[in-house]
User: What shape does this take?
Amino acid sequence: MAAQLVVALLALTSLSAASEPDCKELVKPLVLDSHSPIYGKWVLHVGSWDQSSLKNDLVSVNSSWVELSASSDSGVITIYWADRLNEDKCLQGVANATISGMTSHTTFNINGHTSYHDGKYYETCADCLLSEDTTLLPDSESKGRYLFLFTRTGSLEPSELETFKKQAECLKFLPEYHFSGSDLCPDDRETSASPPAENTENDQTDTEPAAK
Ligand SMILES: *[C@@H]1O[C@H](CO)[C@@H](O)[C@H](O)[C@H]1NC(C)=O
Ligand SMILES: *[C@@H]1O[C@H](CO)[C@@H](O)[C@H](O)[C@H]1NC(C)=O
Assistant: This one.
């Protein structure tokens, strides 16, 4: 009798599991350390939001890329970002993210405006970066969340997009998506790096000790 009951219960649980996305499997936060698969350059493919008031800001972004790199301080990640806005303006800048466990805390200064963000990263497809961004108001109250899927090239397989949509559902995002374009902002660091290089003659004596 007991064995039959167990079998019946198992059948019930597997039935209910089949109808819902398996969120425990789909949503696994990444512990952020130097081995995390988050480093390098990423191109935004799609974003979602959890409150309709956040939609306007995201749809004004035509394309976006970020570069995450480890800094000399193991608790700090450097984030270089570049957004192309719809009026064909490129905004880019750099920010430091402080890491604690599975969360990053970042302060962005954009044209004199300061904004605070908590980031979480989740397991995702190979060569993908899935990041949840909570925008915080100065009193650290949440303004809402975005979910961003970046890839190395900006493109994505249809099956990977389906997985993203299920992950977004598990994380309670709205079933609305903004797809990013592929016309990326050029990297300003590459062009602005040349003028100092021409001054090496003057600086030679200063820079030499650093090379040793
Ligand atoms: C980006 O801008 C171009 C030119 O204005 C426009 O054709 C394209 O639809 C935009 N793409 C996105 C994703 O907003
Ligand atoms: C990031 O941290 C480094 C090292 O502490 C500092 O030199 C740099 O100015 C910081 N950058 C920003 C944008 O805050």
The radius of gyration is 22 Å. The beta strands are 40-49, 61-70, 76-85, 89-100, 103-110, 113-122, 128-136, 142-151, 178-179. The chain is about 30% helix and 40% strand.
